[in-house]
Design goal:
Elements lengths: L2 H11 L4 H17 L8 H12 L8 H13 L1
Length: 76
């Protein structure tokens, strides 16, 4: 997206109702604040998140299944 396109969107935001403008500003401030975070995902973690988000039918474990898998790992 070009700077001109971003500016056009921001100019349109100024025509929105006040509450909606405040909501947009809050979202932008949250995005800006996230850039200041000390927490960063590694490339491997990003790939895993993308893989999981791409799966439309993720398999979920029941609590009993989870406990069973955990017990097997602890035994090793």
């Amino acid at each position: 997206m070009s700077k001109e396109q971003v500016k056009a969107i921001l100019d349109r935001v100024l025509t929105w109702p006040e509450q909606r403008q405040e909501d947009a500003a809050k979202v932008l401030m949250l995005m800006e604040a996230s850039d200041q975070s000390v927490y960063r995902l590694t490339d491997e973690q990003v790939a895993e998140v993308e893989r999981r988000l791409a799966d439309p039918n993720p398999r979920r474990l029941t609590l009993d299944e989870f406990k069973e898998r955990l017990a097997r790992r602890i035994e090793l």
